Amino acid sequence: MSAEILQNVDTTTRATDLDLPVLRKTLPNGQFGVFTSRPVLAGEVLIVMPRGELAASPDRFTVQVGVNQHITGDQLGLAKFLNHHCDANAQMVVVADVDAPTACALQAVRDIPANHEVTFNYLTTEFDMDEKFTCNCSSLRCYREIRGFRHLSPDSQQLLVKSSQVAPHLLLLLQQ
Ligand SMILES: [Zn+2]
């Protein structure tokens, strides 16, 4: 995670529902997804997640922000409905300062037109997922079995690390 990206995340304010450029929609398969409500630019912060109370272990709705720290579904707001993509158009930026009111922010990694689904790569925050699944995204670099960073091959782990989207706790956990 590059320092410049972290500098773009305002950890002192919290987006209100009114200025969020994203909203929840129902997908054709009946599940929920998060979509842009207007065009967004690369680097824009789309959802800000408060630190709140963190869980020590994951469940299917948590987002991992530390070695034993997981934001729970009720703290995630709209982020609870973010779907996975192996070549996602947004990333989770974990805020390292444990005193900051923000634990994590979702940031666009490229320009996204209005009414497009916003996704992030679960493998960039989750070390060992509670609920694994097989990905069917059409990405050339699809990881297929989404079980957490821990379960990737060393080559795939290195590729993800080079993308600069891997949360710092995954590198710490890998060394343990
Ligand atoms: Zn995939």
From TrEMBL:
InterPro entries: Flavunoidine_N-MTase, SET_dom, SET_dom_sf. Pfam families: SET. It comes from the Eukaryota. Gene3D superfamilies: SET domain (2.170.270.10). Coiled coil: none annotated. Residues 19-123 form the SET domain. This is SET domain-containing protein.
